[in-house]
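Lab meeting tomorrow. Please check the following:
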Amino acid sequence: MAAPKKGRRAPASQGHPGRTLLLVLIAMAGLIGGMFYSGTMTPRLGIDLAGGTSFTLAAQNQPGKPNAINETNMKTAAGIMERRVNGLGVSEAEVQTQGTDHIIVNIPKGTDAKQARQQVGTTAKLGFRPVLTTTAGTKTPEPKPNPSKGGANGKAPGDKAAGDPAKDKPGTEQKASSSQSPDAKPTTQGRAVTDALKKAPSAKPTPSAPAKPTTPAVPPTPGADIPPALQKQLNALDCSTKASRAAAGQKAANALPSVPVVACKDDGAQKYVLGPVGVEGTDVSDAKAVFDSQQGQGWIVQMDFTSEGGKKFADVTGKLAAKAPPQNQFGIVLDGAVVSAPSVSNAINGGNATISGGFTQQSAEDLGNMLSYGSLPLSFKIDDETTVTAALGGEQLHAGLIAGAIGLALVVIYLVAYYRGLALVALASLMVSAILTYTIMTLLGPTIGFALNLPAVCGAIVAIGITADSFIVYFERIRDEIRDGRTLRPAVERGWPRARRTILVSDFVSFLAAAVLFIVTVGKVKGFAFTLGLTTVLDVIVVFYFTKPLMTMLARRAFFADGHSWSGLDPKRLGAKPPLRRRRGAAPTQTKEA
């Protein structure tokens, strides 16, 4: 007697098909529960189906670069904008050039228009500049002569205009006026200015001094060598209003990297005189938002430099570490605004750094996104912002859904007429595939910004045929085994390996086509490619983990196992023939000649 073969085990779907079906049901329940948990019950629609917002941006030449507006820079800017807004490329934001100096950006409904406006309009020009001096962000009063006659105590009625004696302490004022640099150490959050220096505008003459013009509120830092014109700009700069911060940021952003500038903190709390750029944003290779729980800084942005940028950063921080505050700080300047101004105690090696400054999760992710994808080669201004309606898209969607329903109905009629009882297996598998597709598309909306547009709906309709084709391949393999004279249970198991190979090859070709379309195309075609690829992957999952286990279980039922006429597996209808059997020991006889 031949020994049984070892090392071969029955697949899980054959030995325990109920467990596999249970796992599929649990996965479906988890996805549906995720929809309820997120509060999103319908897929996010694209701009052609739900409407949205359209921006028209006009390109502007950079100072010293009169020919910067050209076809190459416009295409580069459009590509950066698309990557910024789309993230993974599936949120259906449309970015395209128009004419020679305009870019049109269409944002679907449900997207934060304010955030998108910042993403497409922000140049993201990054630079690391050493801090020469810093003070409070309010405008510094101009020196005025004392209108009163000198007295015993040297006070004058106009002293209140120079400060707020109700809030400022005399001891602090004396210290601020007599010291050329702040005493307190700068914080790690870039707040290098001490309270004494912030109150410097309210400094008054000493009691022993006669009435003289008030001293400047921002004394030059020793060794800073600040030109008088730059000091005058610092005194006149007022960072307390949004308009003044925007004007100062634009001026600082347009300045040459080798020229010192005056800039505001992004929140307007401080203003700085910054030296030439030590490290440029092009030296940053990657940036991402990270929550810092160890040092309690909250959300920060971690940056990785290129090899050359890492060397520059180590050299700059090494020089700053040898200086006294506030000259041991470097300002991280983004589009002319100081995001953070941390102090340096020693050279920072390793090719990475962090930006901190009271970020929220959203602002940290936005900054990391802009730095990762690079700065725009041009600056833009928003010429027009309009709301796009979805009337035409709604009509097309209605027509598309009708076409999809008609196609599905024809598939069902064909399955019932030709496969009879097996049609129940196909319909159940189609239902599972539809539930998985719907829930995943719904959850991808808030997760990665996926938006369902008309081409994506077309891809879902095409997927109905792809999924039904996989069932038909498997059913035909089972029928072939029955035609060869086998009963249903062996036919289900013997037909599966042959059907599996065919299904995998077919789905691989479909997925490869979808991947190529997604990579080489732009705009709405990406939605079709993404949906086609997603449904192809789900087809493999459904066939392997639902259709096959379900057929294994049904093969044990008498209705299918006995070949009922309505089961779709009736041997008589299939034209099955009994297999040819040879008797044991019988051998073909041959006529021998004498």
Observations:
- Residues 17 and 550 are 7 Å apart (CA to CA).
- The mean pLDDT is 76.
